[in-house]
Structures are given as C-alpha cells and as structure tokens.
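Q: I'm building a small set of examples for a reading group on sequence design. Run inverse folding on the following structure and report the sequence directly after it, with nothing in between.
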C-alpha cells in the first residue's frame, strides 16, 4: 500500500483558506526566484549535492505569499526532483532588507541507476526555513536562505528574485 504524507492533505485546505485573501490582495505582482544551493543529505555522514531551481510567488497580503517551487538535485548515479507549494512570510516586506520564513509541502522524486537498471521512487516532501533578501532595485533582489526538510536534508543557498508586473 502506498505511503501517505499528511502534508499533502493539508495543502489543499491552506490553499482554499488563502484564496479569498488572494482575490482581495492589492499587490498581485508575480515574483520569480532562481536558486542555487548546497544540499547535505543525512546518510553514513553527510552526502553533499548541488541544487538548482526556481519558484514563483504571488502576494496574498502585504506579508504573505504563496506559490510553487521546483528544484533539481544531481548526485552520483542518481538525481532528485522536488516540487512543493510554499507559503512565505516576509517580516519587513517594504524594507531594503527583508527577513522571511518559508514552509512548503509536496513531492520528492528520486531516480537511481544501479547495476544497469533505472529505478524511480516518489514520496511526500516538506521544507521549512528562512533567510534574508536585499533589494537591489525596485524589481530585483538577492538573498540567502537555509532550510531543513524531508527526505532528511539541510539546504543552504542563494537566490536572485525578479518582480514581474506592477
């Protein structure tokens, strides 16, 4: 029987509760973030891998935004694809320096090559963490963040963000 991840059942409820705020939001600009990071997986020690990805965020309120994130992680003889829905809280949304926390839930897929065979497995995923962004211009920002998540890992990375629209 397939395993079930409770976070996958919670996200639709969060999305439904957040929808009215999204309809009333005054700041509807889309924000696109590109990320590069180091990821350390817990194994017989730490397994270091590189991560690249991107996210989109729509502001629901002045401090809260919601959107998808997709990342790709490359390892030796395997790769991971992670797709999450993220909820972000900005502590100082109008500031030049913007600390934030983020929580996400979704899918973690692994593809492995072993003895000439290819295997794929999927399971639920979550990440939680925070960081800080700094505005470079009215539309461009750069920042760093750190997260922990499942599959057990630590992620430390840098982000460049671009605001589209108004």
């Amino acid at each position: 029987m397939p395993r079930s991840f409770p976070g996958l059942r919670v996200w639709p409820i969060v999305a439904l509760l957040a929808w009215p705020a999204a309809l009333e939001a005054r700041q509807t600009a889309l924000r696109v973030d590109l990320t590069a990071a180091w990821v350390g997986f817990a194994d017989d020690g730490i397994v270091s891998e590189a991560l690249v990805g991107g996210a989109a965020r729509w502001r629901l309120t002045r401090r809260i935004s919601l959107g998808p994130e997709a990342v790709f992680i490359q390892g030796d003889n395997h790769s991971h694809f992670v797709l999450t829905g993220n909820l972000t809280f900005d502590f100082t949304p109008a500031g030049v320096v913007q600390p934030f926390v983020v929580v996400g839930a979704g899918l973690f897929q692994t593809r492995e090559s072993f003895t000439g065979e290819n295997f794929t497995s999927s399971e639920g995923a979550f990440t939680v963490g925070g960081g800080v962004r700094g505005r470079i211009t009215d539309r461009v920002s750069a920042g760093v963040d750190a997260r922990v998540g499942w599959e057990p890992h630590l992620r430390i990375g840098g982000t460049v963000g671009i605001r589209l629209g108004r």
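The longest strand covers residues 117-135.
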